[in-house]
């Protein structure tokens, strides 16, 4: 391929910089689309560059190299600390910011850690409570369903509506007591449940208050294990309860 | 130690031992060393090309002080941006010659340095590598011989375009000749030169 003669003869003039601006622009727009002429332009530039060799040779004054050396040494001297300074100029605030971020993060982690620790302890507490509740519920169920659990209904003498109480007792498993229609307690008084053993004095099976309807309960009070019960009774006693019954018997029931 | 190349040359010998030992190193190898901060490599490149660069700059500018500045600027730039040098895109000697001419013309015209004179913008302007002393000397005599063969008017037009940075319209104005005559003369000169340089 021979290219484009109409442009080609201008390529050397263009490489020399001899074309006027309008001609140069025209050629340039052709060059953009023509790789052949672009290649030829490279050759023309190479020839034009060789013209530099036609410059009359001149000796270079020594001072130029001295100045160049000084310039380079100066640049090196200012560059190194400058580079370091520039580094620290950016690195120091960056590191400070990073430290701050890490500190805040650490505090956040510590807080989160504390919170998690607290939650774990809370869950452990809850679990213990739940386990205790489960044990208690199982005990209640066993007590209620055991065939040898005594079921006693306590009835009042003449009062209306008749106060009533029910005791579930098992010497090994414990005691459940429910009461209904009990008279409202005077202030400073409490009801106290008694287990009357077959031998010896009555044993306190706990104190209880009633709701507005006269309902009360004692569930699994602390009792000596294995005590055979002769009877159960509820008395009205001073608040806090007493070691031995002193007040009037409100409910009484014999163990069958 | 690093400054040996310069100091020995400054001490009076035409060529320092260090520069001598690098006399046969290729431009590409020297540029790699310059890129890594080796001043002796810069000394070797300077020794090889400073005279050419300075001669071009002085021919264009006709002012030694400004030509020295151009020479110093070019080698300072070479020192700073040596890592951008890519031998596959053109020879260092080609870049230096183009750079010397363009920068000098820019100074002459009071223009900013054209971006094409940056080292990273180098093009394959000169496939011929002048790093070898003998080749360089041969090329110089070939170009001078080719120019000798031109008619004085042809050579003048060519030199006005290349060393003064004038367009053919500007040459016509300066020489007082018709534009067509200048164009024809320039084209003829270029054609003769082409034949002389590409036998």
Biggest interface and residues each: A-B, 39 and 61 residues
Cα end-to-end separation of chain B: 47 Å
Helix tally of chain A? 4
CATH class of the largest domain in chain B: Mainly Alpha
**General form of chain B:** globular
Mean pLDDT of chain A: 85
Question: How large, in whole angstroms, is the Cα Rg of chain A?
Answer: 54 Å
Question: For the residues shown, what is the average pLDDT of chain B?
Answer: 81
Shape estimate of chain A: rod-shaped
User: Which percent range fits the helix content of chain B?
Assistant: 55-70%
Could you give a short account of the major beta sheet of chain B? none
> Uncertain regions of chain A: pLDDT < 50 for 5+ in a row?
none
Helix-residue proportion of chain A: 40-55%
Work out the strand percent of chain A. Answer: 15-25%
CATH superfamily caption of the largest domain in chain B:
RNA polymerase sigma factor, region 2, helix turn helix motif
CATH topology of the largest domain in chain B: Rna Polymerase Sigma Factor, Chain: A
The H/E string of chain A reads: HHHHEEEEEEEE
What composes the largest sheet of chain A? 4 strands, antiparallel
Q: Into how many domains do the coordinates of chain B divide?
A: 2
Q: What does the oligomeric state look like here?
A: heterodimer
The total tally of domains of chain A equals: 3
Summarize the structure in words.
The complex is a heterodimer of chains A (256) and B (199). Chain A has helices at residues 5-16, 21-33, 35-50, 62-145, and strands at residues 150-155, 164-170, 174-180, 189-197, 203-208, 216-219, 229-238, 249-254. Chain A starts with a helix and ends with a strand. In chain A, helix 1 (5-16) runs parallel beside helix 3 (35-50) and helix 2 crosses helix 3. The model of chain A has no long low-confidence stretch (mean pLDDT 85). Chain A has 256 residues and is an alpha+beta fold. Chain A folds into three domains: 5-54, no CATH class; 61-145; 150-254, no CATH class. Chain B has helices at 4-10, 17-21, 27-35, 39-61, 64-80, 92-109, 133-148, 152-164, 168-175, 179-197. Chain B has 199 residues and is mostly helical. Chain B has two domains: 4-127, RNA polymerase sigma factor, region 2, helix turn helix motif (Rna Polymerase Sigma Factor, Chain: A); 139-197, Orthogonal Bundle (Arc Repressor Mutant, subunit A), CATH 1.10.10. The N and C termini of chain B lie far apart (47 Å). Chain B has ten helices and no strands. At the A-B interface, helix 1, helix 3 and helix 4 of A face helix 1, helix 4, helix 5, helix 6 and helix 7 of B.
């Amino acid at each position: 391929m021979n290219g484009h003669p109409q442009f080609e003869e201008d390529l050397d003039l263009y490489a020399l910089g001899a074309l006027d601006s309008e001609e140069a622009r025209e050629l340039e727009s052709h060059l953009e689309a023509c790789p052949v002429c672009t290649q030829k332009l490279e050759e023309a530039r190479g020839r034009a560059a060789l013209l530099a060799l036609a410059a009359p040779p001149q000796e270079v004054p020594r001072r130029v190299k001295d100045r160049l050396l000084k310039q380079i040494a100066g640049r090196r001297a200012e560059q190194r600390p400058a580079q370091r300074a520039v580094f620290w100029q950016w690195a120091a605030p960056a590191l400070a910011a990073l430290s701050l971020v890490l500190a805040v993060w650490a505090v956040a982690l510590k807080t989160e850690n504390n919170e998690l620790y607290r939650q774990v302890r809370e869950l452990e507490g809850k679990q213990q409570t739940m386990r205790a509740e489960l044990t208690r519920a199982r005990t209640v169920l066993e007590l209620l369903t055991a065939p040898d659990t005594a079921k006693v209904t306590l009835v009042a003498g003449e009062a209306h509506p008749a106060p009533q109480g029910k005791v579930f007792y098992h010497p090994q498993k414990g005691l459940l007591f429910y009461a209904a229609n009990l008279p409202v307690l005077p202030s400073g008084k409490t009801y106290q449940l008694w287990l009357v053993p077959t031998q010896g004095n009555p044993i306190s099976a706990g104190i209880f208050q009633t709701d507005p309807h006269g309902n009360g309960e004692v569930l699994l009070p602390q009792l000596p294990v294995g005590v055979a019960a002769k009877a159960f009774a509820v008395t009205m006693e001073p608040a806090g309860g007493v070691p031995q019954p002193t007040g009037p018997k409100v409910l009484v029931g014999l163990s069958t | 130690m690093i400054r040996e190349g310069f100091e020995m040359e400054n001490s009076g010998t035409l060529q320092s031992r260090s520069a001598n030992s690098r006399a046969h190193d290729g431009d590409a190898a020297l540029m790699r060393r310059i890129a890594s901060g080796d001043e002796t490599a810069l000394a070797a490149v300077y020794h090889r090309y400073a005279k050419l660069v300075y001669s071009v700059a002085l021919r264009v500018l006709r002012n030694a002080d400004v030509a020295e500045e151009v020479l110093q600027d070019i080698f300072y730039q070479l020192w700073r941006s040596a890592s951008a040098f890519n031998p596959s895109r053109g020879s260092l000697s080609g870049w230096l010659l183009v750079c010397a001419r363009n920068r000098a013309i820019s100074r002459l015209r009071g223009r900013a340095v054209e971006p094409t004179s940056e080292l990273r913008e180098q093009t394959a302007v000169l496939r011929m590598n002048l790093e070898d002393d003998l080749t360089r000397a041969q090329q110089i005599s070939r170009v001078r011989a080719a120019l000798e063969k031109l008619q004085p008017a042809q050579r003048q037009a060519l030199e006005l375009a290349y060393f003064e940075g004038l367009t053919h319209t500007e040459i016509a104005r300066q020489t007082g000749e018709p534009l067509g005559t200048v164009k024809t003369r320039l084209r003829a000169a270029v054609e003769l030169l082409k034949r002389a340089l590409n036998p």
